[in-house]
Amino acid sequence: TPSFWDHAVYLDYRVAPLFTVTLFDEDGSEIALNRFESSWVPSNLTTVYQAEDDLDVSEQRALLPEDVLVSVLSITNSGDVRRKLRVILWTSQETSGAEQDVCVDTVTLREGVAGFRRRHFDGQGQIQKSYHAALGAAAPPTSHSFRLSEKTDNYPMWDYTPFFEGFTGKLDQRGPEDSGRTQDGLHYMGLGYTVTLDPGEMAEFPAGIALAPTQEEASQALQRALRSRRPIGVSEKAWEQWFRSVPSFTCSDPFLQTYYWYRWYGLRLNRVQDDSERLPYPCVFEGTNAGWFRHAISYSAQCHMLESRWMRSPALAEGTLLNFIRNQEESGAFPGCILNGEHEDPKGFYHANWGRAVRELYDLHRNRDFLNQVYEPLARYACYLSRERDREESHLYDVLDQCETGQEYMSRYLFVREDADDWGPIQLKGVDATVYAYELQRTLAWIAGKLAREAEEAKWTAAAEATAEAIRTRMYDPERGLFFDVHPKTGERSPAKAATCFYPLMTDAAGEEHLAALEHLLNPKEFWTRWPVPSTSQDDPTFNARGEWKGKRHACPWNGRTWLMTNSHIAEALGRASQELDRSLAPRAAEFLHRFIRMMFRNASVSYPTSYEYYNPETGQPPVFRGVDDYMHSWVVDLILKYVVGIQPGDEMLVIDPLPMGLSEFAAEGIPLRGKRLDVTWNASEGLVVGIDGKEVARKKKLGRIEIPLPSRKPVAK
């Protein structure tokens, strides 16, 4: 049906339905609109309808930057006689009428705009969220009707509405004040319009709904959208500006190129700027659904920083961390999730690699003020980890709940408690948690050096060295050739082989002596599946490619699915190992990136990129039943620019070191590099060419490593 009846999500609150539009002929009979074809681009959806009565009808829908959803109907009179059509813009809002679930009240009609307030309750009478909606069209309505109905099936069907009986083309002018004594039921709100068309004439009917904290803000946003010369153009311009704000990337592999741009689409799709006390900075929510993922979540925030650091402005990458600093707990911990209700506290805890994200962001943008902003909060967080997550002073760090790693239902937790999958408390010295702590300590030492805090630099350097040594000596098993979780009481290494066992290879805590770990990774009987890598080794007794745990299919199982989050880490581990430890690994690192990205295309179609949470390692099929696509729980843009194009800036040296991806050509242009513009291109005739601010600074005939000194900002003595 035209317009928006399916639910939207305002922050993390489900709003459904929104509105629809129904057409009528001169006698007040409904003109059936049947969808004929649709086309989609990120900025809008265009639908062509088959209509009766010599009418051609099409529609464009879009979500505008000010939280306005607009629908523009284009109606053409293809007949020989003048037409006078009626258009009814309407919605049906379900309300509990009490302080539970959702209450819709404060229904108004002002200056042709229907307004109402939605309040969400927690079941205890406490308001979680309150916001307002404004519904209207570009022209003033010629009639209206507001009616209350007992709850029934709520579909966008005209003959289900209380307006249907006795309708002859005009609504009955019943106002909001006459819509019923009780507030429990369905609030029907209808606005009527007249569209007159001469033969061959086309008219547009723009309508929309706006959501905002206050009724005034919602009404003003709606009016601004509908008064614009072309509302859909507002959406087109916003998307064009977004895509111009990121580096351009093209290459000879259509899957790589498509996925690069699809990932940027997903990041904007989930981008939120609330300007509230809890979310004062822009950030990216983890997913589009109305459940847990529709929040700022620390586990995925590290991914968003790595991706958005490549934008010309660092605001999104920096804001991602600054929001968690704003919500930092007294203990120093960062919340796992920043909830958006008016009386909700942040919840949970996730281990996250803040250190790597901060350092790599700084490598591109060199924002010293940002380092000053984050140093003390990150230091408090590191102290929390040492105080609360390593009471034994082992320099290995605790996982206390299977949810804290973002990885549930794995044999790694059964090592310390047989019923860990029942969500009881555990204590496990986790490889991933310890690697993240090491990266944080190492980054704090580096920041302290930048800020001339010599004593603190020494303190964090010592902490990082102690953690690295513990990883090498207590987590690495030289006989089995792999890193393992550790039992906090016995010091015993876990028998469970998980994808997290490779995480130390992302860092300099692992050296050439640890490359035996990659034999497990590249073994087809363990992790090197058709679509690698599963979160748990195939020879683990709990392994199941279909996500079944103890005979039951789970929504978030980590006992064998190929998770995008894990694969991002593995790509980083293989990339680093191939460039810093053993160059012969480069073809395997390239192969992994190819397989990782191809897996995410549904039915091997380049026109159907996806980003589900995980995939089947044997078939590559996504969990369609989850309904969670466009899910920002990994990093891919960063891998493409860092390893396909090879861009790796350091403190004093810019390294360009592409993996052998088999590309005949690629071009990455407009990369921000410390206030300058970096371009990197490759093709067989020109070779590998590096330019800064339009000037060529390096060229190599064959694809390979290039090192370019970067100017120091330190004052030069004269």
Give a structural overview.
- The protein is α+β, with helices and mostly antiparallel strands and 718 residues long.
- The protein is built from 14 helices and 34 strands.
- The strands form eleven sheets. Strands 4-5-6-7-14-11-10-9 form an eight-stranded antiparallel beta sheet, with helices on one face.
- Strand 5 and strand 6 form a beta hairpin.
- Helix 7 crosses helix 9.
- The protein is globular, with a radius of gyration of 28 Å.
Low-confidence stretches: 714-718
How far apart are the termini?
74 Å
**Pairing-aware structural class of the strands and helices?**
alpha+beta
Strand line-up across the major sheet: 4-5-6-7-14-11-10-9
**Beta-strand share of residues:** 25-35%
Topology, number of strands:
34
Shape: globular
Helix content: 25-40%
Q: What profile does the largest beta sheet have?
A: 8 strands, antiparallel
Arithmetic mean of pLDDT = 95
User: How many individual helices?
Assistant: 14
Give Rg in angstroms: 28 Å
Topology record:
Layout: E1 8-10, E2 13-15, E3 20-24, E4 33-41, E5 44-51, E6 55-64, E7 68-77, E8 83-95, E9 102-110, E10 113-121, E11 127-137, E12 143-149, E13 185-197, E14 202-212, H1 215-227, H2 231-244, E15 248-251, H3 254-269, E16 271-272, E17 283-284, E18 296-297, H4 298-308, H5 315-326, E19 337-338, H6 354-365, H7 368-388, E20 398-399, H8 411-414, E21 428-429, H9 431-450, H10 454-475, E22 476-477, E23 482-483, H11 517-521, E24 548-549, E25 552-553, E26 562-563, H12 564-581, H13 586-599, E27 614-615, H14 637-644, E28 647-649, E29 653-656, E30 665-673, E31 676-683, E32 687-692, E33 695-700, E34 706-709
Antiparallel strand pairs: 1-2, 3-8, 4-5, 5-6, 6-7, 7-14, 8-13, 9-10, 10-11, 11-14, 12-13, 15-30, 16-17, 18-19, 20-21, 22-23, 24-25, 26-27, 28-29, 29-34, 30-31, 31-32, 32-33
Helix pairs in contact: 4-5, 4-6, 5-7, 6-9, 7-9, 9-10, 12-13
